[in-house]
Design a protein that fits this description.
Elements (H helix, E strand, L loop, with lengths): L1 H16 L8 H14 L4 H8 L7 H7 L2 H4 L2 H8 L2 H13 L1 H11 L3 H12 L12 E2 H11 L4 H16 L8 E2 L12 H7 L15 H14 L9 E5 L15 E2 H5 L4 E2 L11 E5 L8 E4 L1 H9 L3 H14 L18 H13 L13 H14 L9 H8 L2
Antiparallel strand pairs: 1-2, 3-5, 3-7, 4-6, 6-7
Protein name: Membrane-bound lytic murein transglycosylase
Keywords: Signal
InterPro entries: Lysozyme-like_dom_sf, MltB-like, MltB_2, Peptidoglycan-bd-like, PGBD-like_sf, PGBDSf, SLT_2
């Protein structure tokens, strides 16, 4: 009862916090949000000046509904971002800027190839930053996001308030451009991270993650460290599981040591040997029993802090290795598996919730919480407990 009352109270307080009610027009929302902005330290005159004539970006809603890391199979996402052309381009860009990468890595201890991989994935090594279709006015984007009240409305509001404060203080230009979600610069740092961690690494007297690669790399290195990145530690490794392995040991909530899994017959691919047996890892099975499997370390979790999608984090990890000269994954993806569309993914979450296995939000995004719920149901149903939502698994679930 207390939780329910708290949720109702939070809902009733939303207008007072300056959020838009669903029926509010954009101009009415701008006016209502002014109260919160002023209460947070933004001057009324500045707020009205930068919001005068501001219009919503109609493409924001389309962008947030079609994020490829959630709408495509993980192998499609990785294939597009770790192509031969992308690897070659990244190696060339790395060599051309090696002095900067070396300085940043020496200062902060972050693997320079990790930073190069993020650079490649986020802005195609800086080549898309001049395209208006990708880089939009941050202020307009964030106002549009908060007005639309997507699932992370409070987080979006905090990003917006920080941007307003940074602009008011002269620490960010009013016409600053970034992604539709508000991320900025070569490596797409979010305003919350920018406000605390961005650094003038090139020493020109200003922080500019958009025009200075040195500032962008150093700022994102500091962000990764704040997210738990451990210098000198690998992101993880691809592994083989023995026959009869208990897939219930998979998932981020099953953090163990490398030695724990080695004792249960888990081996590295291609005859490679494990390093530190005490390294904390978890088993990640992104595409079921027939796809690649991984033991993931703390640096992989730092990648997820940068962007929560597992497809993104695994792409950073894999592109890092490929830029170093490494090869593809030893095991191929189950490309013949039928990927569920969004309507089916929503139905799957609703069914798991109805059966008492799932307590998360119904959004069609099958992340770790949904996979854990699916594994619990698979276990009770006598199926392979790999958490992979194929059409075959979906049909069995929906028949219950």
């Amino acid at each position: 009862m207390f939780l329910r009352a708290l949720m109702i109270l939070s809902f009733l307080l939303v207008p007072q916090l300056g959020f838009a009610a669903p029926q509010q027009s954009f101009s009415d929302f701008i006016q209502s949000f002014e109260r919160r902005a002023v209460a947070e330290g933004v001057s009324r005159d500045f707020y009205r000046r930068v919001t005068k004539g501001l219009t919503p970006d109609p493409k924001i809603k389309v962008a947030q509904a079609s994020q490829p890391e959630f709408e495509r199979p993980i192998w499609d996402y990785i294939d597009k971002r770790v192509s031969a052309a992308k690897i070659k381009q990244g190696q060339q860009k790395y060599r051309a800027n090696k002095a900067i990468f070396d300085r940043v890595s020496a200062q902060y201890g972050v693997d320079p190839y990790v930073l190069a991989a993020i650079w490649g994935i986020e802005t195609n090594y800086g080549t898309i930053m001049s395209h208006d279709v990708y880089f939009k006015p941050v202020l307009r984007s964030l106002f549009s996001l908060v007005h639309q009240r997507r699932g992370r409305v409070e987080a979006d509001a905090k990003e917006l308030l920080l941007v307003l404060k940074l602009m008011q203080a002269g620490k960010m230009p009013v016409d600053q451009k970034g992604s539709w979600a508000g991320a900025m610069g070569h490596l797409q740092i979010m305003p919350t991270a920018y406000s605390k961690l961005a650094v003038d690494f090139d020493g020109d007297g200003k922080i500019d993650v958009h025009n200075s690669l040195a500032d962008a790399l150093a700022s994102s290195a500091r962000w990764l460290l704040s997210l738990g990145y451990v210098p000198g530690e690998d992101w993880g490794m691809e592994v083989e599981l023995p026959n009869g392995f208990d897939y219930r040991l998979a998932g981020r909530d099953q953090l163990r040591t490398v030695g724990f899994f080695a004792q249960r017959g888990v081996q590295r691919v291609a005859g490679r040997q494990f390093g530190d047996l005490d390294q904390p890892v978890f088993l990640y099975v992104p595409a079921g029993k027939n796809g690649p499997k991984f033991l993931m370390g703390r640096n992989y979790l730092a990648f997820k802090g940068y962007n929560f999608a597992d497809s993104y984090a695994l792409t950073v990890a894999h592109l890092t290795d490929r830029l170093k000269g490494g090869g593809p994954f030893a095991n191929d993806w189950p490309r013949d598996a039928t990927f569920l569309n969004r309507q089916q993914r929503v139905a799957l979450q609703e069914k798991l919730k109805q059966l008492g296995y799932y307590r998360g939000g119904v959004d069609g995004r099958l992340g770790p919480i949904s996979q854990k719920a699916l594994r619990a149901w698979q276990s009770d149903a006598g199926l392979v407990v790999d958490g992979f939502a194929t059409k075959q698994v979906f049909d069995v679930l929906m028949a219950q």
